[in-house]
Every structure is written in C-alpha cells, then in structure tokens.
Amino acid sequence: MSDQSFDIVVLGGGSAGYAVALRAVQLGKTVAIVEKDKLGGTCLHRGCVPTKAMLHSAEVADEVRAAGHAGVDAELKGIDIAGVSSFRDNIVAKKFKGIQGLIKAKGIEMFAGEGKLTSATTVQVGAQTLTGKNVVLATGSYAKSLPGLEITGNVITSEQALQLDWIPKRVAILGGGVIGVEFASVWRAFGAEVTIIEGLPHLVANEEESVSKQFERAYKKRGIDFKLGARFSGVTQDDSGVHVSLETGDTIDADLLLVAVGRGPVTANLGYEEAGIEMDRGFVTVNDRLETSVKGVYAVGDIVPGLQLAHRGYQQGIFVAEEIGGLNPRMVEDINIPKVTYSDPEVASVGYSEAKAKEKFGDDKVESYEYSLGGNAKSEIVGTTGSVKAVRLKDGPVVGVHMIGRRVSELVGEAQLIVNWEAYPEDVSQLLHAHPTQHEALGETMLKLAGTPLHAI
Ligand SMILES: Cc1cc2nc3c(=O)[nH]c(=O)nc-3n(C[C@H](O)[C@H](O)[C@H](O)COP(=O)(O)OP(=O)(O)OC[C@H]3O[C@@H](n4cnc5c(N)ncnc54)[C@H](O)[C@@H]3O)c2cc1C
Q: Which SUPFAM superfamilies does the entry mention (predicted)?
C-alpha cells in the first residue's frame, strides 16, 4: 500500500471527527478519517442513540401502564427485551448506514485500523503512513471506573448495559449523573428495583439546585431509591449477584452494579506526548482555537476538557474545519451549550444557574423566575409536573434557562436561542407560543421577567 497525502487527516471517526471531515470537504479540502472501530463512534453505537431508543421503549411501557388515566383500555403484558434490542439496533444500523453513505458520497477516505500520531503531520495505520497538512485528534472517551473497582461479571458500565439480553430485577447504580439516571429510568420502567449511589449531595448535581430537588422528588415517586452523599467502599459478587458496600456500613444487594462515574479521554499510547502535545490528566490541552501545543495539530470532542456531549463535538469539528479553512469562525462557549438528561422526567438547561450567575455577575445584578408546569395545559395533558426557570441580568439579557418535566428536551432549542442570542425577556415576551404547548411555559417565564405576566402569579 502506498503512503498518501491529504489536506487533513482526522484520527477518530466519532461525532467530532466526522464533523471535521464533512465541513472540511465543503471547503474544498481533501480529508482522510482513520477509525479503528465504527464510523459514528460512541454516540451512535454505544451512547446517545441506543440509550435514547431504550428510553423510548421505557416511555412506551409507562404510557401503557398509565393508559387507563387517559381512557384507553390497555394492559402492559411485559417487556420483550429481544424486541427492545432489535428496535434499538435497527435504529443504530439505519443511522450507521446513513453516515457511511454520506461520508462516501462526499469523497472522504476512510482508513480502517488503529492509528497512531507519528509526527505533527503524519498518522500511521498499519503499514500505511497518512500525511496531512493538518492533523485533527478526535479519539473520544471510554467509561471510567474507580481505582480497584474492576469491570467484570455483573459489575458493568454503560457499554455492557446496552448489550444485556435480560432485565435485572434489582440494580445498583454508582453515579447519579446523566448516564446513571438515564439507565435508572429505563430499568425502573422495565420493572426493576433501582438504587442509585451518589457521592454528591444531589442527583444530576450539575444542574440548577431547584431542578435537582424536583428530580429527586420525581424519582422517589417513581420508586427509584437513591443514597446521596454516599461513598462506595467495595463490591463482591457471587451466584446471587452483587453486594455493594458503602462507607456508612450499608450494603446494597442487586443483580447488577452499573458503574457510571464519568468518562476518561482515549489518549494513551497514541503518540500524542511523543509528538510534543501537551496533556493534562490525559486530556489534550488546546488554546481557544482548539489548536494543541503543536502547531497545525488540533483536537476536538471528548478528549478536550469540558462538557462531553455529541453536539459540542460537532460544533468543535465544524469550528476546526473552518479555522483551517481560514474562515475565522466563532464558537459557543461550554456554558451556553444546551444539556439534556433524557430520563423521566427530563432535565434540559442552557447557560448559568442562578448561583453561578450571582457568582459571576454579582448578587444584586441577577433576577430569576421559576414557572410551574402545573399552570401549563399541555403539561397537564401529557401528565407531567415540573418547571421552567429563567435567570436574567437586571435590565439585561437572559443568561440561563433550566427546565424539568416530561418532554422539556424539546424546549431547549428555543431556550438556547434565547440565551445565545442574548435576548431580553422583553424581546421574547412579544413573540407568540402556540397554545396549547409546553413552549408556553417558557413564554410565561419571559412575560413574568418582563413584568407583564399573564398566567404567572
Ligand atoms: C451511555 C451514553 C449516553 C450518551 N448520551 C448522549 C446524549 O444523549 N447526548 C449527547 O450529546 N452526548 C451523549 N453522550 C456523549 C457522546 O457520546 C460523546 O460526547 C461523543 O460521542 C463524543 O464524540 P467524540 O467524537 O469526541 O468521541 P467518540 O464518539 O468516542 O469517537 C471517537 C472515535 O475514535 C475512534 N478511535 C479512538 N482511538 C483510535 C485510534 N487510535 N485509531 C483509530 N480510531 C480511534 C473510536 O473507535 C471512536 O469511534 C453519551 C455517552 C454515553 C456513553
């Protein structure tokens, strides 16, 4: 095989890597992607897409349970896990085919195999050397564990959880962040007894505190147990399952322990340090143009410190392609990237929490209002409670929106426009929200902050 040269060589074909490639070819660049597993990466094969498919199955199960409430005579006979898996896998397969076709149609060259950075302009894949005027590192992340906690048998991460061909009766989940609470939501809807162990004082602790508290009440109501401020001390396994011990001396017996304690960067032994790239605890250090300490080498996605989200990776990928293309692009900073937890209830937010806004702008400069979904007709119809909270600067723009309730993920598109366009509540409150929709709750919040509430008290 001959060595080949491109304008850009991308190492890793996940959300971030393929976004670089797609935007770069639009700008007339020749691009190669090196991928050791499957194009689409974690998000498509082991993350966003398969988990959301399972959450949809979970939602359908709960809707059937609640059907009588809406006058529909239906009965949940059970969960067919093989059916859930094939529903999920078919969606992933279709999207995989789609992205493969797109990459091929755009003339992006794929190289299968484990790539290694061998200099600022070369990536080695097997016997082949690929040279790029620029190289973009996009090798993604893996599910972390705790020191001494081995992932084996019935101690699993999200990766094995997606492969399970049985439904656990009792599950312990270590970590009450987004991945932990999403699996808790699925398994509870499938009939399992679930206990979440979280070392911090709250579930979904990165969110606005009032949202975390409502989330905990909702989980309690769903019969999901959780231990907050609880520190894991060890786990044993035997024929009856796992026995998880906490520093308090408590033990939780379950069929499975899901370890959901965060994700680490995939950067070891890939030649990064040898090429002179500065690293920080395994993450790749970049400047505000996403360039590494080696000129011409960029990094995108989960290996860059900050939020680990697919749409952040896409944004960074587009940004780097445009930066290399000389377009001087702009980037939305992490704080203003929308975040969603797709559990039941959902949590969706963008921008500063009230506490963080006060810290940044000063206590007396910040104003907020929280509107209860109890006053929203559509929320009543779809059977959800929750709230929409907005944080604004006094006589200034909205700097944060924080929502909880079924389907609020669909509202975050508007919320992020408001925050990123630095809209004032006075601007938004003049615009219409169709009735009855949950968007009206966002409209009411803006009306109240503009001093002209219609339904808000
Ligand atoms: C269970 C779960 C649920 C999630 N849900 C969501 C969600 O709902 N929304 C959301 O926004 N985010 C979600 N995420 C996060 C999201 O998946 C990641 O942020 C995203 O995949 C990061 O993209 P990336 O391109 O940086 O890395 P990855 O998607 O991890 O891609 C990196 C790619 O590089 C390849 N690679 C690595 N090393 C090499 C090498 N040496 N040579 C060749 N190829 C290599 C890998 O095989 C992989 O395909 C979820 C993650 C998990 C685990």
A: FAD/NAD(P)-binding domain (SSF51905), FAD/NAD-linked reductases, dimerisation (C-terminal) domain (SSF55424)
- pLDDT computed for residue 443 by the predictor: 97
- Mark whether 435 is an active-site residue: yes
Distance CA 237, CA 245 (A): 12
Is 141 annotated to bind a ligand? Reply is yes
Please list, in sequence order, all residues whose beta carbon lies within 8 angstroms of the beta carbon of residue 66, skipping any fewer than 6 positions away.
383
Q: Is the pLDDT of residue 1 over 60?
A: no
Average of pLDDT values for 351-358? 97
**Radius of gyration for the alpha carbons in the chain, expressed in angstroms and rounded:** 23
Please give the share of the chain, as a percent, with pLDDT higher than 70. Answer: 99
- At residue 33, the 3 state secondary structure works out as strand
pLDDT digits (tens, 9 = 90+) for 91-112: 999 999 999 999 999 999 999 9
pLDDT of residue 455: 82
State the closest ligand 1 atom to the C-alpha of 38, by its place in the atom list counted from 1.
Answer: 49
Helix H or strand E segment including 348: strand 346-351
Residue ranges and CATH numbers for the domains of the chain are 4-141+264-324 (3.50.50.60), 155-261 (3.50.50.60), 345-449 (3.30.390.30)
Q: Which residues form the pocket of ligand 1, taking CB atoms under 6 Å from any ligand atom?
A: 11-17, 34-37, 41-43, 46-48, 51-52, 114-115, 138-141, 158, 179, 266, 270, 301-302, 308-311, 313, 342
What does each C-alpha distance from 203 to 84, 149, 341 come to in angstroms?
A: 27, 22, 11
Q: How many CB atoms lie within 10 A of CB 70?
A: 11
Q: In what order do the strands lie in the sheet with 225-228?
A: 155-156, 256-259, 170-174, 193-198, 225-228
| Residue 2 banded pLDDT, cuts 50, 70, 90 | low
Tell how far CA 121 is from the center of its chain: 32
Q: What is the pLDDT of residues 46-89, one digit of tens each?
A: 999 999 999 999 999 999 999 999 999 999 999 999 999 999 99
DSSP conformation letters of 96-162? HHHHHHHHHHTTPEEEES-EEEEETTEEEETTEEEEEEEEEE---EEE---TT---BTTEE-HHHHT
Residue nearest to atom 12 of ligand 1 (CA): 309
What tens digit of pLDDT does each residue of 225-248 get? 999 999 999 999 999 999 999 999
Confidence at residue 456, expressed as pLDDT on a 0 to 100 scale: 72
Ligand 1 centre to CA of 323 (Å) is 22
Cα(301) to centroid of ligand 1, in Å?
8
